[in-house]
Write a structure and sequence with these properties.
By secondary structure, the protein is mainly α. The protein has helices spanning 2-7, 13-87. The longest helix has 75 residues, at 13-87.
């Protein structure tokens, strides 16, 4: 009996506005969920990029240290060669 009454219920402007408000609230909720889901993915990507950046910085520091060592070795060898040439 209740269902039959719902079929013949009058739709006034207030009920239409309430239904439209409910639909808008549902859409806003869905959009909010989607945005937070995407923000989560962006955050994970940022953490991954930060880790990669840190690893690359560490590698660069090791390369720079090795480069300094090699330059020092080259200077020592140049001094040795210069001394050998002056003795000979």
């Amino acid at each position: 009996m209740e269902y039959q009454l719902d079929l013949f219920e009058e739709l006034d402007e207030l009920k239409q506005l309430a239904e439209r408000d409910r639909q808008i609230q549902e859409q806003v909720h869905n959009i909010r969920r989607g945005l937070f889901g995407r923000l989560g993915k962006v955050y994970k990507w940022m953490l991954k990029q930060e880790t990669i950046n840190d690893e690359n910085t560490d590698k660069l520091n090791v390369y720079n240290q090795r480069m300094d060592e090699l330059q020092s070795e080259i200077k020592r060898l140049e001094k040795t060669i210069s001394w050998i040439e002056s003795v000979a």
